[in-house]
Amino acid sequence: MSSGGEAVSEVLNKINPKWVALIAGLTVLFLIIRALLAPSLAVETGMAAPDFTLEGTDGKTYTLNKFRDVPVVLSFWAPDCEECVAELSAKSAFARSHPEVQVLAVSIGDFTLEQLADAEYEHDIRFPVLETSAQVQQRYGIHNLPVTMLVDDQGVIRQIQEGEIGKPRLNVWIR
């Protein structure tokens, strides 16, 4: 009877190196194709933020270009996104401590203004919550949530964070 180490060695000796190379090659090819097909944002830092006009839960209409002369934090989110909801208190705290920055929550998905207002109340969101459109989602290329962007006072995207963000990082963005 052979030991466990000898048994493993025997099995490894029987494996055809060509099969190992083929499997490794296919795995690499799969990862490359997956990366190439993965959705990416349609915007990047240094470019002008696409303008939009959206209705808020407060009944007001918000146009991004009307916020020239102040930095804007765009928070793309959805009420059913766990990461989005997890970062809301940090964004509300940031908004309270930085009144010189306009924070806008742009919803992604099929949510009514009433549903968004309920989420705004439930999560104590302290900045405007806006109903989105498919056009805004497409122009920004939002596929995964949350996404947060800093648009400077000239309308240029300066920072982008895909995934959850906290108040310390937001504070660094506006220095």
Features:
single chain; 175 residues; alpha/beta; Glutaredoxin; 2 domains; five-stranded mixed beta sheet; two-stranded antiparallel sheet; 6 helices
SSE map:
Elements: H1 4-14, H2 17-37, E1 53-55, E2 61-63, E3 72-77, H3 82-97, E4 102-107, H4 113-122, E5 129-130, H5 134-140, E6 147-151, E7 157-162, H6 167-173
Describe the structure.
The chain has helices at 4-14, 17-37, 82-97, 113-122, 134-140, 167-173; strands spanning 53-55, 61-63, 72-77, 102-107, 129-130, 147-151, 157-162. By secondary structure, the chain is of the alpha/beta class. 41% of the residues lie in helices and 18% in strands. The protein has six helices and seven strands; from the N terminus they run H-H-E-E-E-H-E-H-E-H-E-E-H. The radius of gyration is 23 Å and the shape is elongated. It has two domains: 4-37; 53-173, Glutaredoxin, CATH 3.40.30.10. The relative contact order is 0.19. It starts with a helix and ends with a helix. Strand 1 (53-55) and strand 2 form a beta hairpin. It has a five-stranded mixed β-sheet. Strands 1-2 form a two-stranded antiparallel ribbon. The model has no long low-confidence stretch (mean pLDDT 91).
